[in-house]
Amino acid sequence: MNALTLSAKKRKAKVVKILDLMGKLQFAKKNVKKEQIVTSIHRGAEFQVLVCQLRYSRQTIRFCRFLRLSDQLGLNMLEGVGWGRYRYYGNGFETGDCGLEIDDPDGVDRGLWKCVVGYGDEQIMKVSGAILDGGEEEAPLAILRVEDVNGLNGTEVKLQCNANKPLDYCWFKDPRGVIYSVSEVLMEDEEGSYWYDGISLTMGDCGIRLKPVTEEMTGRWSCHVGSSRVSALEVSSYVNVRVSTSQIIGSVDTYCRFITPSGQAFSLDESVTSENAILGNYYSNPNHNPKKGFCSLVVRSVSSADIGQWICAGKIAGHTMEQYAAIEVSTESAGNPADLSTASIVGMALGGAVILVGAVGLGYYNYWRRVRKQVVAHCQWNQQQ
């Protein structure tokens, strides 16, 4: 056997080894399981356990949250910590367990929940989750809630049309008949004028971000969702969109605050209700949603200290400067507020409450309104009434 034949055999043997190694790597790659959230529900007469377990991941859970879809109750779960009837369930974040245990669950507790799991390190954070149905009977596919949207011409707006089931697809149609099909692959780094907004379709998140919006987009939009896991029929709903060139159009960005005539200042949002009123007297008006552009306050029991000039202030989305307005609360029946008797003060406020709806506009303005036996001052984020 000459040296040339021996060399050829060695090369052939080396190639065979390389091909064998490549085959093993491809086999191993095919058998690598993808990171996923595996859900389970355990029911009892006096308890209910919801579990979202992160599997096939080398990352550690950084946060674990549950959202009750019926009323948007949110719970941030921590190992070994509980709040009343709700507490963390599992063997710890390091094992991939994100769980919620509920004692004496009521009707809403046995409904739909969403878990949100964040995992990763200081450089990269991933977010995933799932929808869990705590009811004994499976609910049909439905769109949970849709809110009207106000926006400024040339800026960005977001439309949400979230569902109660994992989705296969989601799309929107504007008043002109233009169709926008969205999914997780349609991210902001892609070219275009609209992108997906949400965590994932599997979590029921159907959302779209549009930029820039124009006045031609004003009108009634429709949103459509489908889930083959539930039904071949898709479900749809409508979203009213208003786009204007006026800065008065817009939503409250960061906060809403008031200053009383006496100089007392406080902030509030929809979480401040009549049950936890500030100073036992001031709370957010439940009939005016801040997300729809309202900064609204209810004064439960009117006193002479509430008569005079109020200041409301806040941030409008897309603007760095705080906007504010003055609201004059006065009464036709009294010359000097200090001379008001308790009876006359109560008589001025129909039902014993003064409603102050704050405005954030282009500048500073006063809006006066006198109503017999009632004191009401109105301004609004999106239009002057």
Automatic annotation (TrEMBL):
Transmembrane regions listed in the UniProt entry: 345-365
Signal peptide span: none
Limits of the Ig-like domain: 140-236
Xref: InterPro entries: Ig-like_dom, Ig-like_dom_sf, Ig-like_fold
Record bears the keyword Zinc-finger: no
UniProtKB keywords: Membrane, Transmembrane, Transmembrane helix
Designated name of the protein: Ig-like domain-containing protein
Species for this entry: Culex quinquefasciatus (Southern house mosquito)
Classification lineage: Eukaryota, Metazoa, Ecdysozoa, Arthropoda, Hexapoda
